[in-house]
Specification:
Largest sheet: 8 strands, mixed
Low-confidence stretches: none
Bound molecules: nicotinamide-adenine-dinucleotide
Number of strands: 14
Distance between the termini: 63 Å
Mean pLDDT: 97
Helix content: 40-55%
Radius of gyration: 23 Å
Structural class: alpha/beta
Amino acid sequence: MAKPPLGIFGAGWVGVVTGACFADLGHQVVVRDVVPEKVEALRSGMVPFHEPGLAELVERNQERLTFTLDLEELKADAKIFFSCVDTPPLPSGEANLNPVWSVVEDLGSMDGATLVMKSTVPVGTGERIRAELPDRVGYVSNPEFLSEGRGIEDFMRPDRVVVGSFDDEHGDRIAALYAGFDTPLVRTSVASAEMIKLASNAFLATRISFINEIANVSEAVGADIDEVARGMGLDKRIGTSYLRPGVGYGGSCYPKDVPFLKLLAGSSGYHFQLLTAVMEVNELQKRRVVGKLKKHLGDLPGKTVALLGLAFKPNTNDMREAPSIVLAARLRAEGAEVRAWDPLVTGHPELDGVVIAPSLLDSLRDADAAVIVTEWPELEGLASAEVREVMRRPLIVDGRNLLDPKAVRAAGFDYEGIGRAQ
Ligand SMILES: NC(=O)c1ccc[n+]([C@@H]2O[C@H](COP(=O)([O-])OP(=O)(O)OC[C@H]3O[C@@H](n4cnc5c(N)ncnc54)[C@H](O)[C@@H]3O)[C@@H](O)[C@H]2O)c1
């Protein structure tokens, strides 16, 4: 049976992954963005951000995948339209829904169309949009759970697909798109689907802040977080994922979605106390590295610190809310000279005053300390004789517990991890 053609608003991480994956599954897909350079790049086969395998997938499906600025081209054949536009935070912490509202306006009154919300929105947004949509346009919430760096795999083999609808007709239509997926399909109301997305992200952020606090206490009382996390994670009720301490979460999702949920609760009359702590812990965690550096180096003026890894996680060049930004600013405020290295990020406006080195070794030359901020595989061999040779002082602060402390110390470095026994 012919697969229905699809229209996608937004050529960012979610939009291009969604478009390329559905094209690969046999749909004709038109992806529309409002940024001409993005559309031009995609048309010439270049994906303007780093996502493993995506350029190849776009290339392989070029006959079924079109990128455009033109609204009419987007609307020419499709009846199903995905909103994959951004929903960035406002200064208040609430979601800026202007891009979503512009999608509603752009869609207009297309007879028999379904608007599918993949953008992450506060609970109640679907209800508000439905009130504005003409009767003949349906609305479905189909939140996206992909993780940058493994977006294609997550899209094609998700843990579940959530379809929240106001009526069966439009819900069935969207559920049918996922009929070939070997995964549970969760049919819900629109409000529940919206809440599933926010609650999932808030829960994962909570696990991260929780294990970071356990790591901090372990450090103070002589326990070792690697042993603690393993012993906890083997309990099936707990599980092993998201039990790795570090310098705090970043990225385009948790830092905005946790406040979205907290503010949403607040405006509904409920004080979500736990999430306040989750956010506070995360902010403090980014700064703990400074204390570890001072423990070894004393005051930081005149000291050079190499930040290794800038992106908020490996396999992406996404710098949105990356902990490296806060850490670099904190170190500079303390008077340190900050150098940095990242295999994909070669500059960023929020890294003012940070010298980005052309190679890992260059970033470490005459440095008083190396701080692992992102667990890039390239850093696994950091504790080498060559590195020890070029550093002024062989100190490694491992903000991701990437290295084996014993091996690092045996190689002649001082070592500080997060929550690891001395
Ligand atoms: N990035 C992720 O890992 C991820 C995962 C799950 C969910 N989400 C959610 O998905 C949404 C999109 O995230 P993203 O990371 O892909 O964002 P992004 O910023 O990378 O991409 C959004 C794109 O939408 C475009 N856009 C804005 N208004 C438009 C309009 N009216 N018509 C067409 N295009 C328009 C922007 O120019 C931009 O290219 C957000 O709500 C985010 O919270 C993101």
